[in-house]
Amino acid sequence: MTLKRYEIDKLEHKIIHVKKRGLDLIRDPMLNKGSAFSEKEREEFNLYGLVPPHVSTFEEQIKRVTENYRRKDTDIGKYIFLEALHDRNEILYYALLLRNLEELTPIIYTPTVGMACQQYGHLFRRTRGMYISSKAKGDFKKRIYNWPEDEIDVIVVTDGSRILGLGDLGTSGIGIPIGKLSLYVACAGIYPSKKLPVIIDVGTDNEKLLKDPLYLGEKRHRIKGEEFYEVIDEFIVAAHERWPNALIQFEDFTNDHAFPLLKKYREKLLCFNDDIQGTGGVALAGLLAALRITKGKLCDQRIIFLGAGSAAVGIADMIVAGMVEEGLSRQEAQKKFWFLDSKGLVTTTRGDKLAEHKIPYAREEKFIKSLLDVVKTVKPTSLIGVSKQPGAFSEKIVREMKKYVDIPIIFALSNPTSKSECTPTQAYEWTEGNVVYASGSPFDPVKYKGKTYATGQGNNMYIFPGVGLGAVACKATKITDSMFYTAAKTLAKLVSKEDLQKGRVYPDLKGIREISAHIAASVCDVAYSEGFAWEKRPDNILEFVKSKMFQPVYLPYKPV
Questions:
Q1: Which of 257, 265, 449, 516 has a Cα at 20 to 30 A from 14?
Q2: Considering 180, 194, 336, 419, which one is annotated as catalytic?
Q3: Is residue 169 domain-shared with residue 204, that is, in the same domain?
Q4: How far is CA 78 from CA 82, 102, 173, 198, in A?
């Protein structure tokens, strides 16, 4: 049986049998080679006269698009250029991305994707992904079949309610699933045709968007309560029915929905929430690497969180798992954390009703309002920011923390860059260079007293692509916390001594494919051990995983 457009011949190996001809072939971004179609292909597929006469090499094409990309003088201009390339030639797009990952990731994802989402209705050129409108409730099963691909490995879905640190962007939030899935392909080799970005449009409470004539979503306020969950459930059922083996990744839902959705579906199908579990995994990996610098033990850490949402609790839960492995009980481990939300220290004594996800970490002690006073009381070893409050880690707070610990660990993880709790330059200057720092968005290296620090970026792209690849490769039936925990430990082990000497607690992104392969292999191993994998266990899991990874190269075509 062939696919609708093409089929890779498994017998001849790496030969693609193609049905399309002429302009139909050129206009298919998964099949288009542009000026690189060979003379034989031009003859067999009726391409003469439709492409320039020179047969370009792949390297010539890479050089051309690189030059054009670097001519753009704004980040949003670069984003538009890359998406245009994405729309016309996916192989070339992913080859360019993979070769220049550190340069291009801040454009296709945070922080530039945030600006692109904010301007989405004004930048819109060509549709990508599926738009599931709540007004079509009752018809999702029919509409899901409008998507042309019968094989989907990964779905990233959002309702646009909490995009990065920017809040409710409604349907304009589709840029986040698009960016995440580009990273799935580039970092972990998920096949481009087997990914699906989805926005579930349940309205928006962003008044600016509701008044914008170019906004592309439903112009009504968000639906609430049980109606919201009915819409999500209908989509999940429809998607799972058509693609029963697909991994569903929940992305950028508000806290009041993120936790209930994960709790509802995690035991029923292959899914996870990246803001909770992915963020937790990457932060734990950074902390484990940081302890190689400070020479501390995980179970001895005193950790203050500024922010008490899904990311904070996800990180804490993952660190608790590590502390339990070192010998603490779960209750003992949870006492190592102090959370501050918008009101102050999360305690059982402050008189308000706490959200369910905060209760396990609520302190049974006197309420303290300010972060500085909590630092003075707790004398923390680690300070983690997931608050979206720029500058919240002030000089006074950082210097106060330094009084109690020789090398503080400061993770300012809020995205985008403008929301970071403090910059690496500030952290190094305020601690006289004695700090382990990581951020959520990329910063340039810092020079301080003759030494250059290449600070680490606690980006979820280190974790979620490898977890997804592992789950898909072994045909896992569920994603467990232990899979994320082993992914975090694997990532931490891949941080080299040279990385640590530079102040980095994450490995170089240039090796992201190898990193993702090792994480995927570790996830597969857990799935096999826990009995959640349908694929037969291979003799060499790492090589098995690597064999499943898409490579962005042109393959020869044969006509059908």
A1: 516
A2: 180
A3: yes
A4: 6, 14, 19, 23
